[in-house]
Amino acid sequence: MRRVFLLCCTAALVGCYGSREEAGEADEAATMSLADMAGKWAMQTMAEASDSVIVSYEMNATATTEGWTMTLPNREPVSLHIVPGGDSVITHGGPYESVLRPGVTVTTESTTRLVDGVLQGWVVARYQGAGADSVMRFRVRGTRAP
Fold first, then answer.
1. Are residues 62 and 3 in the same domain?
2. Residue 63 in contact with residue 38, Cβ under 8 Å?
3. pLDDT of 31-77, one tens digit each?
4. Do residues 21 and 38 share a domain?
5. Which of 41, 105, 133, 146 is the most buried if burial means most Cβ atoms within 10 Å?
């Protein structure tokens, strides 16, 4: 009886997987390439639970993992290390001086996706020597810059 149950469950899972692919419901975002993100982006950073922009910056993206930069207000560009994966791109930046905490060094890691022409995602900022609040999480979004 146990074998029959396992066989039925396996058949149901395989059937569901096949019907999703046949119906053309494969995740289109998973096919994103770096070329889809290439260009200049006007980025905005917000607190997790707010739509108020706390930092705006420009991100320059290329069709490869080389040459990505982030330019904060009145700063030199910061090189970004890029790790593409599926429907997302992970960017590592820093260390550099924080905009929100002057005199404090920060490194950032963001994960973004391109959704309907808008970059959306999360940023984790790690502040050096900041004590108990040394890690902060923010939302980020970006639109193509003119």
1. no
2. yes
3. 578 999 999 999 999 999 999 999 999 999 999 999 999 999 999 99
4. no
5. 41
